Amino acid sequence: MIGVDLVYIPRVKEIMNRRGEDFLERVFSPEERANLNLRPETVAGRFAAKEAMAKALGVGLFKAGFKNLIVTQDARGALCGRYKNDTFDLSLSHERDYAVAVARLRESSVLSVSNEAANLLPLVDEKDHKGARGKAAIVGGSAGMFGSVDLSSSAALRAGCGLSYAYVPDAVFNDFSLRMREVIVKKQSALDDLRGVDALGIGPGMGRDRRARDVFLKVYALDLPMVVDADGLYHLAEAKAESAGPKIYTPHAGEMARLIGRDADWVNAHRDDAVDECLALYGGVVVLKGHGTIVASKDDRVVNETGNAGMATAGSGDVLTGIITAFLAQGLDCFQAARLGVYMHGLAGDFAALHKSKWGLIASDLIEYLPEAFLRLEAAREICQK
Ligand SMILES: NC(=O)C1=CN([C@@H]2O[C@H](COP(=O)(O)OP(=O)(O)OC[C@H]3O[C@@H](n4cnc5c(N)ncnc54)[C@H](OP(=O)(O)O)[C@@H]3O)[C@@H](O)[C@H]2O)[C@@H](O)CC1
Ligand SMILES: Nc1ncnc2c1ncn2[C@@H]1O[C@H](COP(=O)(O)OP(=O)(O)O)[C@@H](O)[C@H]1O
Ligand SMILES: [Mg+2]
Hints:
Blueprint: E1 2-8, H1 9-27, H2 30-34, H3 40-57, H4 61-64, E2 70-73, E3 79-83, E4 86-95, E5 98-105, H5 107-110, H6 115-120, E6 135-139, H7 146-158, E7 163-168, H8 173-179, E8 184-187, E9 199-202, H9 210-220, E10 226-228, H10 230-239, E11 247-249, H11 253-260, H12 264-269, H13 271-282, E12 285-288, E13 294-296, E14 301-303, H14 316-329, H15 334-360, H16 363-385
Parallel strand pairs: 6-7, 6-9, 7-8, 9-10, 10-11, 11-12
Antiparallel strand pairs: 1-5, 2-3, 3-4, 4-5, 12-13, 13-14
Helix pairs in contact: 1-3, 7-14, 7-16, 10-11, 11-13, 14-15, 14-16, 15-16
The structure holds ligand NPW, adenosine-5'-diphosphate (ADP) and magnesium ion (MG).
Ligand NPW binds at residues 145, 147-148, 204-206, 230-231, 252-255, 264, 290, 314-315, 317-318.
């Protein structure tokens, strides 16, 4: 959360001479230009401060935009920085040909992530081994739908599990095994092994034929914490199977409509009522996805505050299944795992959109930016606990 930058003053002087006002307009906001001292060492120091703020945020300077990284003064007259809702302490200096700036993201900015979510983070014991950090299994995949189970099982590892297994149909086992590295691939004919895992996710890309339905019914009857998504929700709606262990259901509006016998337009217009109907029919914890995802049990309900429309892209729900399964496997209860999972998935999506835009974001980016979301939440928790 600290950034530093060094700028060669003669270079800034040369650009100022060559490009004049045009350069200042491109780099400084109107607020900054109003008070700007045009000595090259001052301009170079301000420029370095912007780069240092971008580094403290972990965002490229061009992506953040020069003019969005604002060097200003606080109420006491001390130099500080601002980027959207984040603020920075700044320290600037220059000597001969060089100007230097150090930026530190203020704690208040770090705390703008949810303290409640930060306090749910599973603890990591320094003596942990992979078997002690949660074993997650994802049951799904079928020809043409490898991607979904890859995304789910990979996301489970990135969300902190020590071991992640993908249970795929025997017919695609060889192909799928070649594709995966950290994830361990198993055949769905070995479902008895599932008793050794801590939590399960079922449904991504699993298909809707009879074979898939039979696998679903066997797995759904296991007394293990379980996330039910995608084609798992299809089989559940069709079979109205009895649940044994703790369950989290993660429908989008279309899947919710099927679960409660409504249409998707009705669900979109009555999201809270749809969740109530789903809870009454299936119990457990319900996650109704989409803008303002609802996480609800019969006793608790929250509307999630992270995430963005760039996440409306194929496979992003599969990533969510893996993240929630991982938190279940690390010992959180169903409501906590769903709450933290949805929050982290959205926060990773917000980081991904910052780096790659809402247009360029794809589901695997959510896995890539999950570590950044963890770092942010871990920093918030450390500050809360001080
Ligand atoms: N790379 C891979 O391998 C991937 C594999 N995947 C796998 O594909 C399988 C099928 O998944 P699915 O979500 O497409 O299935 P389904 O249940 O038919 O729902 C779609 C229907 O519901 C409707 N709908 C209404 N509201 C909606 C909403 N808010 N969000 C979304 N839909 C909404 C929608 O309406 P429409 O779009 O026509 O308006 C449409 O009629 C599943 O196994 C999944 O894991 C995917 O994860 C992608 C990456
Ligand atoms: N407009 C949006 N704003 C925020 N999040 C969204 C938006 N649209 C979709 N999402 C999120 O993206 C994910 C999509 O899940 P899903 O529809 O199951 O995708 P897939 O089946 O392709 O993996 C959900 O977590 C949902 O909340
Ligand atoms: Mg889905």
